[in-house]
Amino acid sequence: MTEMARGAGQKWGAAEVRAAVEAHLAAADARDWDAFAATLADDVVYDLPQSRERILGRERYVRFNQEYPGDWHVRVERIVADGEGRQAAVRTVCTVGSEEMPAVHFFSFDAGGRITEVTDFWPEPYEPPAGREHLVERY
Q: Are 78 and 90 in contact (CB under 8 A)?
């Protein structure tokens, strides 16, 4: 079952999910926080299992990215989206200076095409840096 996206009569399927992920990551890379926020559901949940952190809500998730230190960039290597328009798995390479880190991200979407969940997996478990306690819950 493919639902109608954003009430415009457009089918929401794998191609639209791929485009939504690309728009989300491109907005993050460009530091276009309004465009980035527009891709997110109000109650988005962002999970970082390797540091045992969770961020609840669009405002905190946007702030987390705005405040993330360094000149980081993300390059999409592959996006695999389901035909139902609800989930995607993404492989990226993130760079900070000369350091490259592969990552895998899992996205879930609502019927309107907004991101409801993001789970990021990085190469190694790590302790989170200080300074983001005001945005995250630890588990």
A: yes
